[in-house]
Amino acid sequence: MMNEVMGGSMMWGMGLAGLLAIILVVLAIAALVKYLFYR
Question: Membrane: is it a keyword of this entry (predicted)?
Answer without folding.
Answer: yes
